[in-house]
Amino acid sequence: MVPMVKVKSLSDNLNAQFDEVHRSSAIFWIPPISIASSTISILNYYTIKNNCQTKARLTWRLFNGTIVKTDNIDWSSFNVLNASTPDELLNCGGSVEFEAFSDQNLRIPYSAVMCIYETTKSVAFVHSYSRIYNENEDEASLESILHREGCWTLKDTSFITSSAVFHNGPNELNAQKANLTITNSLGKQLSASIPIPKLNPYETYLLTPKEYFCNLEEFLGGELGSAKINFITSGAFGRMLLIWSNQSEKLLTVTHSNFNYSECTTDTLHSSEELCYARVPQLSGIQSSLILYRDHTNNAFDYTDNTITRSPKDIDYYSPLVNEKVSQTVSFSPLTKESLPSRIVTGFLSPPDSSGNLGFECSFGVMNAIYKPKRFHWACVIPRLKSKIILSIYTELFDEPSDDTILNFSLYLPTSKDPIVAKVKLACIDQQIFVDGLEVNKLFPQNTDLSNTQDACYITLFAEYGGFVMFSTLEKENSFALEHSF
User: Are strands 94-101 and 55-62 parallel, antiparallel or unpaired?
Assistant: First the structure.
């Protein structure tokens, strides 16, 4: 029997309960330039946040895993690196792996970096979703690891194609048959056994459900659906990059998959009295909703969206997505005396529309009492793409911040080592930052030329109050992208 990937408890994960870590990494899909340009964007948070000195490198590979280029990174003159696709991959695509090495304990084996995908009409970005295991991790010694991934929204129409990417690790992997199940908005399901050929070390593999379900568009009927898949890798974490595209119209958007918790177990909250929460950013002129991947959890729970409580009879039906427009925090409570799972995977979603917009999706989850106060955040922004910062406050878990709370913002540009700094009291900041978001140039009004900044930058926030959650946005023509901060 192939061993299944382990799900670390939320508490251990948040408290960085890993073995000694001297290598931290992430790996990303690189599309051919005919699909999109891609930029891996890295903040030297190792030094800024943790005062760790690192050596770092980028390894660029073809889809078949062959190395075409390696770049060593020297942090001596900058704190932000934006690396574009090298010429060797422009026409064919492949992958890029980022690695940071240190004599000090880096504590967390996955790197908090971003990849930005841009076309002439759209922009999208995503944080690290997969990585190659370190040699001292148990998973690295296994010839194969079974992954059960879900939380994959299907949007397929004649206009949109849904796809997913996963990466193999450093060992050759025998041919396999992956199990793919799709569910439509009525709860009806179709399944297929997907033949995946033998994979080379570090090979990148693309899956497109339309290729295996010839009636997929008809089956979905113009509504959102979902997919889950079981597959094997060797030496690589199986989180997938989820892609929605229209290549002829030069449109693309992305997010990442998550564990299928109907088949993978997670820890629970400490008592049945504790609740989970998710707060939906309210975006002016954009339909944004909380989605709940109902078929990817075994647990029964109630949820309340400010005024309406969904009773068991209302939610005791099979639907892959609960898609509700809400205006405040959504709370989740158990329907039985059992405690809630520590992880309930949710997402923020804007659906496709008739104008040709693909919409966006941001995988989020829930907040609960296991989360400790978080005082330092960092997020990727691109001023030329109208980047905004949005703050949410989880007073249900961290009480109310005082009006005198100081928000310490720093903006790191790729052209200089030192950041631009802004300090403002909570009572004095433009309150739009808590609603629709505040553009980067309004956070740093002394720098009038920020809107002309072409490349990705990073905003950090430090505050003694630990109940903030931060998001950043990108906009281009009709496309909109949202990501949570690290």
Answer: antiparallel
The SS3 of residue 211 is helix
Cα-to-chain-centroid distance, residue 256 = 5
Structural domain span for residue 322? 276-363
Rounded Cα–Cα distance for residues 176 and 147 (Å): 13
34 and 114 belong to one structural domain: yes
Cα dihedral: 399, 325, 363, 125 (round 10): -110
Contact yes or no for 447/89 (Cβ under 8 A): no
Which residues are CB-contacts of 115 (< 8 A; sequence separation ≥ 6)? 28, 29, 38, 39, 40, 41, 96, 125, 126
Q: Which helix (H) or strand (E) holds 219?
A: helix 216-220
Indicate whether 322 belongs to any domain.
Answer: yes
For residues 110 and 193, give the distance between their C-alpha atoms in angstroms, rounded to a whole number: 31
N- to C-terminal Cα separation, the chain:
36
Q: How far is Cα 238 from Cα 95, in angstroms, rounded to an integer?
A: 15
- Has residue 114 been placed in a domain? yes
Q: Is 148 left (phi over 0), alpha (psi -120 to 50) or beta?
A: beta
**Where do runs of H (alpha helix) occur along 289-354?**
312-315
- Greatest Cα pair distance, the chain, in angstroms, is 61
Using an 8 Å Cβ cutoff, are 455 and 100 in contact? Answer: no
Check residue 221 and give its pLDDT: 93
pTM: 0.94
Instruction: Give the chain's domain count.
Output: 3
Distance (Å, rounded) from C-alpha 163 to C-alpha 144? 23
pLDDT tens digits along 342-392:
998 888 888 888 777 899 999 998 999 999 999 999 999 999 999 999 999
User: Who wins on pLDDT, 222 or 336?
Assistant: 222
Instruction: Indicate if 354 and 391 belong to the same structural domain.
Output: no
